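Final report, results section. Input specification for complex C-07:
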Amino acid sequence: MCRTIVVTSGKGGVGKTTICANLGIILASKNKNVLLVDFDFGLNNLDVVMGVENHITYDIFDVIDGNCTIKQALVQDIIYPKLFMLPSSHLIENNNIDVEILKNMINELKYMFDYILIDCPAGIDNNFKRAISCADEAIIVTTPHISAIRDADKVLSLLLKYKLNNVCLILNKVRGDLIVKEKMLSVKDVEDALKLKVVGVIPEEDFVNFSLLSGGGVDSKSDCYKSFSLISEYYLLGKRDIFDPTVKYKGVLGKLKINLRKFV
Amino acid sequence: MGKEKMVYVERLNKILLKDKQNFPNKLISVVKSDIENVLNNYFELNLNSSELKIIVGEDGLIQISYNSKARNIIPLNAV
Ligand SMILES: Nc1ncnc2c1ncn2[C@@H]1O[C@H](COP(=O)(O)OP(=O)(O)OP(=O)(O)O)[C@@H](O)[C@H]1O
Ligand SMILES: [Mg+2]
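Structure output:
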């Protein structure tokens, strides 16, 4: 049965699109049929992050307007044949799309996929509500900063209304060196504050940006990759094994790394 | 936990709590009217005496209390 998971946050720029793309890539590389849906109407970037922006013929609005069928709008990934994307459009500024139309569209696609990941826009306006309405589960993304956690808490309370099956937290842009030095909230601090189960911790890595723009996801030797791989195991097998960003900053060698990081 | 971090965590928890304490005013009137609609099936309520309190405690738990007087109990088999 298909699992439809919305990736949301409230606050912008915390990593929703990055997580959608990379989780999708890893699930597809493990032989699952995956669809990424861009619900960030007008400010969409999933196409760029996936490196497929030049392969788009139709978008979600063409489907709504009847210019194409929903299958014609799907874009297959260049590297992973089991990964597809339903793109949004940059041309849309204001839209009054009926949520029922979107829900029907997603429902129509469920039989083709094992996972549908919905990239939700920042904020809590109508497009947020539309994205949530189409999902059965949610991932709330936050960084370990007060403003992002506060917005995550607000989103969490809004989600109660939608009676989703499974709401989990992913902590992104975590710096193990700062946690060790107590200059950043730890995973437990955030978990305690939000009273929500963390299913993934992703370290902040300098080259996430570049590696993504070339398509194919983060470098498979990076800590980010390890972290996404562990998150995918939660969604595949229910195994909750969380990446520990502090490990490499502990002990004598760790102290050296902390000092070196200051100069990077 | 170091002092600097403790202050940060305290600040975070205070902000989250305050956000919960500032629930919308509308909530009280909507919940009150829903409760009264239900109770009206069983009691002849004296609505001037009714009061709904919603208090978010320091621990984040919400205490809800409703108080009202009624003049009569409406028999269960009455239509
Ligand atoms: N773990 C990470 N390490 C380093 N950079 C990251 C990490 N995660 C995300 N980024 C970078 O942060 C920026 C914002 O990420 P992203 O676009 O995924 O956020 P978003 O939540 O989708 O933003 P928006 O709310 O605008 O849609 C991007 O430049 C991305 O490359
Ligand atoms: Mg985004």
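The beta strands of chain A are 3-8, 34-38, 75-76, 83-86, 115-119, 137-142, 166-174, 198-203. The pocket of adenosine-5'-triphosphate (ligand 1) is lined by residues A 9, 12-18, 40, 45, 122, 172-173, 202, 204-205, 208-209, 212, 224 (CB under 6 Å). This concludes the modelling results for the funded period.
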